[in-house]
Write a structure and sequence with these properties.
Layout (H helix, E strand, L loop, with lengths): L2 E9 L3 E4 H8 L4 H7 L3 E4 L6 H13 L9 E5 L10 H8 L7 E5 L5 H15 L5 E9 L12 E11 L4 E3 L4 E4 L5 E2 L8 E2 L1 H23 L8 E4 L4 H15 L5 H8 L4 H6 L6 H12 L8 E8 L3 E9 L9 H9 L2 E2 L2 H10 L7 E2 L8 E7 L2 E6 L5
Parallel strand pairs: 2-15, 4-5, 4-6, 12-13
Antiparallel strand pairs: 1-7, 1-8, 2-3, 6-7, 8-14, 9-14, 10-11, 13-14, 16-17, 17-18
Helix pairs in contact: 3-4, 6-7
Bound molecules: acetoacetyl-coenzyme A.
Length: about 400
């Protein structure tokens, strides 16, 4: 039985900070960002945007195409949780008015949780092919001002409908995985921003890739040559390039520069202009590939490398399904990204600090132009609002 992703859509914030603006503010050469880390823009969420509203914007166009009452579970992956007890997915369930006969749970392990939720969803569908599982990966990447991570912020949510007989990609059974208790990136409970040992984190990312690759080949018998396109977790696009160089070296493959680019570049366009979206970034990379590759890639094998600091990593593959192009939402993705408003550095700081105010009672000024927004907090309870339909 084929199980995998039937529909796929992403959302990001309505605002961005250009790394040219950032470089001017910090008196740095912009090429440090454009070339050095391979990033151009970071999506910035206003205070009335959180992972629930991003997730709702990502999921709504999928639900419009199916009988939403058939959703049997929401697996919500995030490291930007909105409550220590109640899962973000239950707020989402309420906002989208889904069936009460639905289970909801939050998944966490840094940027890895989205891959974990996807794998869990395929297992649920394998056990009961009637299941239709909504997998959400949503995060707001936020670091301290003037820290090394500040240039690698961003935000986004990816919604994936996981079913039997999927129309986009079948996720193949078998994967390679790896866990090691390291402190390369973490966010203690009392902080809204992550702490990171930046250079160390890039080393652990690459060593985890080598470990998961070895395990993947042992478990599945598949080789580098069996894979047509490679999607990586992308904290910044240069990291994906380094990852692919590492893998190519490890397996001793000889690729021309054009072959190397063809295997990775289409899967980096969105990430380059959205920034890091933690658990969503690997799947945003997959959507970038689908929305930018000119040829038809039916029956091609795609690999996914998920890396979550701390660290847990997994390498798995999927096969593109015949006719997949007819269900892609490429135009919507491109339009939403193009419609974002540029922020000055001062406006970015305003959003940044307003979102830090986690008071008992707060009413947010409408800034989020999407169909769903965080309206406020009353007696520590978050309340959301469904706006007019998105234009
Ligand atoms: N022109 C061209 N290139 C330039 C340049 C210029 N003018 N100035 C600098 N560069 C290059 C540097 O040579 C360097 O290249 P290499 O990495 O190939 O050596 C690159 O630009 C970055 O420069 P620095 O090393 O000086 O940058 P930095 O110290 O400010 O920090 C970073 C880089 C550590 C990645 C930082 O952005 C960071 O801490 N980011 C957050 C952590 C992160 O994303 N880690 C990734 C792995 S962990 C993970 O993947 C999980 C997750 O999502 C967080």
């Amino acid at each position: 039985m084929k199980i995998g992703i039937d529909l796929l859509h992403f959302a990001t914030a309505d605002y961005y900070l250009g790394l040219d603006t950032f470089a001017t503010e910090k008196h740095l050469d912009v090429d440090k960002f454009y070339i050095g880390i391979g990033q151009e823009k970071m999506s910035i969420s206003p205070p009335d945007e959180d992972v629930v509203t991003l997730a709702a914007k990502a999921a709504a166009p999928i639900l419009d195409q199916i009988d939403a009452n058939e959703i049997s579970a929401i697996l919500f992956a995030t490291e930007t949780g909105v409550d220590q007890s109640k899962s973000a997915g239950v707020f989402l369930h309420g906002l989208l008015n889904l069936s009460k006969h639905c289970r909801v749970i939050e998944f966490k392990h840094a940027c890895y949780a989205g891959a974990a939720a996807l794998q869990m969803a395929t297992t649920m569908v394998r056990a009961n092919p009637k299941e239709k599982v909504l997998v959400i990966a949503a995060d707001i990447a936020k670091y301290d001002i003037d820290s090394s991570g500040e240039a690698t912020q961003g935000c986004g949510a990816v919604a994936m409908l996981v079913t039997a007989s999927p129309r986009i990609i079948m996720i193949e059974p078998g994967s390679g995985y790896f866990t090691d208790d390291v402190m390369d990136f973490w966010r203690p409970n009392q902080r809204t921003t992550a702490l990171v040992d930046g250079k160390y984190s890039t080393k652990v990312y690459l060593s985890s890739l080598k470990q998961t690759w070895d395990h993947f080949t042992e478990q599945t018998g598949r080789t580098f040559e069996d894979i047509d396109y490679f999607c990586y977790h992308i904290p910044f696009t240069k990291m994906a390039e380094k990852a692919h160089q590492t893998l190519v070296r490890k397996v001793g493959a000889t690729l021309t520069p054009a072959e190397f680019e063809a295997q990775t570049v289409p899967s980096q366009f969105y990430n380059r202009i959205v920034g890091n979206s933690y658990s969503a970034s690997l799947f945003m990379s997959f959507i970038s590939l689908l929305d930018h590759i000119e040829s038809n890639i039916e029956n091609k094998r795609i690999s996914f490398f998920s890396y979550g600091s701390g660290c847990v990593a997994e390498f798995f593959t999927g096969i593109m399904q015949p006719g997949y192009q007819s269900v892609l939402m490429t135009a919507e993705h491109k339009q939403k990204i193009a419609q974002r408003t540029a922020l000055t550095y001062a406006q970015y700081l305003e959003f940044y600090y307003q979102a830090e105010q986690l008071e008992e009672n707060i009413v947010y000024e409408p800034k989020n132009r999407g169909a769903y927004r965080l309206a406020g907090i009353e007696n520590y309870k978050r309340y959301y609002q469904k706006n007019k339909p998105e234009s």
